[in-house]
Specification:
The chain is of the alpha/beta class. It is built from 14 helices and seven strands.
Amino acid sequence: MKTKRIVCEIIAFLLFAVLLVSACSFFSKAYMPERESYGSTWNMYLHEEKDSVNVMFFGSSMAYCDIVPSRIYENTGLTSYVLTAPEMTIPQSYYYIKEAVKTQAPDVIFVELSSMFFPDYSNHTAETVGFMPCSSNRIAATFETAEPQARFSLIFPMYKYHNRWQEVDLTKKRADDRVDLFAGYTPTVGVLEALDARREWTFDSTGVKLDKNEEYLRRIEKLCNDKNIELVFFLAPACSNYSAENLAIIKNAVKDSAFIDFNEEFDSIGFDMKTDFYDPLHLNIIGATKFSARLSEYITENFSLSPKEHDEKLWQDRIAAITELTHQS
């Protein structure tokens, strides 16, 4: 009888633990802010039809502001998604890729490398890691890429967002609980700052953990190789050129993988700094359309891809949405 009672108590405890974790997970997600743009759009990404994406892009804001998946689809018939975050570090890109391939099996992955010179801890860890799905990858990203003082709230989001309980309506569907009409792209309209001439962009690598970044580049390479995914590292176009020293560091770090610096094609792509940039680092919707056309060419020139099964109406709606925004800009 004693043994039976102990077994019952253990079962009751486990059931309670499962219910507690489930409740915490539900309320944590409910209390978190809705995330529809500027990266970390995991809720919407998970609404993509499983294994329907040909190409995926990872990196910082220089990816989600510069790449328009619907234009790539319009040009190539290939589906793509931009799964990035503001100031996302290279280690965080690794965990994003590792989590993303749970639901998609892309043929090609592009990783933007301006983050090579980012500080070890991002100013946007709460958004980058905090909006990842609850998983072992999120836990690993928390302890390996987040500053120590941020880890508790990343593990227990209710601690950070509990004060939102008065503004949260649990009966109302979240705005980000849907498919993303822009497939991870964040449209930027207008020219907030323009330069008359391109300048040299020099990163101070003091305090930057280049060895750690290179370690995670190797992990990204291995992950893609294990998954039979083609990998391309790239630098997005900006109003500033990287210094020769910075470029040498990047090229040496990825010397065994495909790499392209689109800044070298600035003039041939046809960028105009007075019309195509939202700010010195990010393209607006006009510039992003030009860059996406060049990406379309690069993809078709370098890879023989067949379109995956996908929702054609959704992608036509995505084209229409971008076209409407472009006409308004």
